[in-house]
C-alpha cells in the first residue's frame, strides 16, 4: 500500500495529514510532504517506510523494518520485528521493543522500557524512564539517563554523561566522556574509563582496569581485576582519601588508602593493623595469621611516608 495525499480517508490540514481510525496492512509506504498523524493504532505485517514525520496516537506494531525520514511520535507502544531507523527524533509514551537495530539521528525519549535486540545508536541524548536492555552495541553522542536498570550485551560508549537510577551491567567495555552516576550496582565485564567523576551507590566491579578522570565515590564493595587510576579524590567505604591502591591478584584483595588498609573484608586504620595481636588476626580468617606474617611488612610500607595519621 502507498499512502499519498490522494489516498481516500486522509484528511489534509495546513500543517499535517490525519488518518482518523485504525489501520492494519501488509506493507505500507507513506509519501507525503507533511507529517501524518494516525489517531488510532497502526499495525503493519511487513515493512513501514515514511518519507516525512509520523505520529501515532495509539500503538505501533511493525512486522518488518521501519524507516522514518522525519520524526516519530507514538502515544502508546512500539514493537518492530526488524530494524528501526528514524532520521530525526523519536518520542514514545509507552515501551519500545525492537528485535533488530535501532538508530535515531537526533534524540530518543521513552516513557516505559526499551529493549533492543541488536545495536542501539542515538546521535544526541537518550532518556528512558523504565529499564533499558541492549543485546549488542550501544553508542550515544550525548547524555544517557535511565531511571530504572540498564543492561548492555556488549560495549557502551557515551560522549556525554551517564546517569542510571538502578543497576548498570555492561558485558563489554564502558567508556564515558563525562561523568557517571549509578544509584545501584555497576558491573563491567571488560574495562571502564570515565572522563569525569564516578559515583556508585552500590557495588562497583570491573573485570579488567578502571580509569577515572575526576573523583571516585563507592558506597559498598569495590573490586577491580586490573589497575586503577583516579585523577581526583576518592570516597570508598565512606573514607575520603587522596591515595588509593587496589591489588587484586593476591591471596586476598588488598586496598590501601591514606590512613586505612582493607584486606579481604577487614577494613582498619594503619595504626590498628600495626597493633593487632596474633590472636586478633587469627580470628579474622582461617589463614589470616599466616598471610599477615608473610605480607605485613610490605603492605604497611606502601604510602607510609605520606600518610598523616598520628
Bulk shape:
elongated
Backbone CA Rg: 26 Å
Helical content (DSSP H or I, runs of 4+):
under 10%
Number of helices: 3
Give the averaged pLDDT, no decimals: 89
- The portion of residues forming beta strands comes to 35-45%
Count of structural domains: 2
The order of strands across the largest sheet is 2-3-6-9-12-15-18-21-24-27-30-33-36-39-40
Structural class assignment:
mainly beta
- The rounded distance between the terminal residues' Cα atoms is 82 Å
Poorly predicted regions are: none
How does the major sheet shape up? 15 strands, mixed
What is the total tally of β strands? Answer: 44
The quaternary structure here is single chain
In short:
The chain is mainly β and 310 residues long.
Question: Overview of this structure, please?
Answer:
The strands form four sheets. The chain has a 15-stranded mixed sheet with strand order 2-3-6-9-12-15-18-21-24-27-30-33-36-39-40, with no helix packed on it. A 13-stranded parallel sheet has the order 1-5-8-11-14-17-20-23-26-29-32-35-38, with no helix packed on it. A twelve-stranded parallel sheet has the order 4-7-10-13-16-19-22-25-28-31-34-37, with no helix packed on it. A hairpin with a 2-residue loop joins strand 43 and strand 44 (266-269). The mean pLDDT is 89. It is mainly beta. It folds into two domains: 2-243; 244-304, no CATH class.
Amino acid at each position: 500500500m502507498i499512502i499519498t495525499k490522494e489516498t481516500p480517508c486522509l484528511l489534509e490540514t495546513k500543517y499535517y495529514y490525519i488518518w482518523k481510525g485504525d489501520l492494519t496492512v501488509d506493507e505500507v509506504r507513506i509519501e507525503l510532504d507533511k507529517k501524518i498523524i494516525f489517531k488510532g493504532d497502526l499495525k503493519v505485517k511487513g515493512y513501514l517506510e515514511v518519507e516525512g514525520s509520523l505520529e501515532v496516537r495509539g500503538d505501533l506494531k511493525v512486522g518488518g523494518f521501519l524507516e522514518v525520514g522525519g520524526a516519530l511520535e507514538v502515544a502508546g507502544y512500539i514493537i518492530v520485528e526488524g530494524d528501526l531507523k528514524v532520521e530525526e527524533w523519536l518520542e514514545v509514551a509507552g515501551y519500545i521493543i525492537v528485535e533488530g537495530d535501532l538508530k535515531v539521528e537526533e534524540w530518543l525519549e521513552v516513557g516505559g522500557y526499551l529493549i533492543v535486540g541488536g545495536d542501539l545508536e542515538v546521535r544526541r541524548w537518550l532518556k528512558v524512564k523504565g529499564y533499558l536492555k541492549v543485546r549488542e552495541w550501544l553508542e550515544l553522542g550525548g547524555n544517557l539517563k535511565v531511571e530504572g536498570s540498564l543492561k548492555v550485551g556488549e560495549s557502551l560508549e557515551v560522549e556525554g554523561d551517564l546517569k542510571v537510577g538502578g543497576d548498570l551491567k555492561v558485558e563489554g567495555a564502558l567508556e564515558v566522556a563525562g561523568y557517571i552516576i549509578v544509584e545501584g550496582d555497576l558491573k563491567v565485564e571488560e574495562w571502564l574509563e570515565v572522563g569525569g567523576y564516578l559515583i556508585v551507590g552500590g557495588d562497583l566491579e570491573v573485570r579488567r582496569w578502571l580509569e577515572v578522570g575526576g573523583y571516585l565515590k563507592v558506597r559498598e564493595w569495590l573490586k577491580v581485576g586490573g589497575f586503577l587510576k583516579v585523577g581526583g579524590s576518592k570516597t570508598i567505604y565512606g573514607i575520603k582519601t587522596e591515595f588509593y591502591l587496589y591489588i587484586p591478584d593476591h591471596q586476598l584483595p588488598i586496598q590501601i588508602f591514606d590512613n586505612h588498609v582493607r584486606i579481604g573484608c577487614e577494613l582498619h586504620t594503619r595504626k590498628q593493623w600495626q597493633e593487632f595481636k596474633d590472636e586478633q588476626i587469627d580470628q579474622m580468617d582461617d589463614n589470616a595469621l599466616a598471610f599477615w606474617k608473610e605480607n605485613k611488612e610490605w603492605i604497611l610500607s606502601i604510602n607510609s611516608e605520606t600518610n598523616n595519621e598520628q
